[in-house]
Amino acid sequence: MAVHGFRRTAADRVVLLVDDVEKGIVTALLQQLLEFVAPAVEDEDPLVQLVGLDPQAKPSDDPAMARLFPDAYLDDPEAAAEYRRFTERSLRDLKIAQAQTALETLRRSGGKVTLSLDEAGSWLGALNDLRLTLGARLAITEDGMEEFANLPDDDPRSPTFHVYDWLTFLQESLVQALMPDSR
């Protein structure tokens, strides 16, 4: 049986081994992430679009969205709002591009997904965003990890935590594969 996760090849490529179920889970999560971070489509000034400003950007009440787009200045709401106005659109665009790259590489492959180092970087960002989103939904904290690891199977949070834990494994295996001495 093959060990799933990421590994680095001698040809400096990164390979992800997944079965059909794992591939389906990651695909569904990435599609949901795309929908979640996509900006609301509004009739806006083309110049504002061109320069990438988001004059309507504001902190979200949704804990997952707030985790993906945190305030840059916790002690200065005015500076935080200004920073968000100039950066949130490009950050959303980056998150969307990373998730799309991960989806495209999954769609072009079977159970062995071969990635360039640039594609692996996109995967790293997308996996991080998925983990942040699920972690916020579950309200996971460093202090509470043991509680989640010991959830009974009938706890409604258990399946989501198992997916979170698996994504953590994938992210860790990708980080290891990207290390210079990983071949």
How would you describe the overall organization of this protein?
This protein has 183 residues and is mostly helical. The protein has a domain at 5-42 and 95-178. The protein has seven helices and three strands. Strands 1-2-3 form a three-stranded antiparallel beta sheet. Helix 1 packs antiparallel against helix 4 (77-107). The longest helix is centred in the middle third of the chain and has 31 residues, at 77-107. The chain is globular and about 50 Å long.
Mean pLDDT level: 88
Note the beta-strand portion.
Answer: 5-15%
- Unreliable stretches (pLDDT < 50, length at least 5) are none
Question: Residue share in helices?
Answer: 55-70%
Q: Supply Rg.
A: 18 Å
Which structural class matches the secondary elements? mainly alpha
**Total number of strands:** 3
Query: What's the tally of helices?
Result: 7
Q: If strands are numbered along the chain, what order do they take across the biggest sheet?
A: 1-2-3
Strand and helix order: EEHHHHEHHH
Main beta-sheet annotation: 3 strands, antiparallel
Distance between the termini: 21 Å
Question: How would the blueprint of this fold be written?
Answer:
Layout: E1 5-8, E2 14-17, H1 20-37, H2 46-51, H3 63-68, H4 77-107, E3 112-115, H5 117-138, H6 145-149, H7 158-178
Antiparallel strand pairs: 1-2, 2-3
Salient structural properties:
single chain, about 180 residues, mainly alpha, 3-stranded antiparallel sheet, about 60% helix, globular
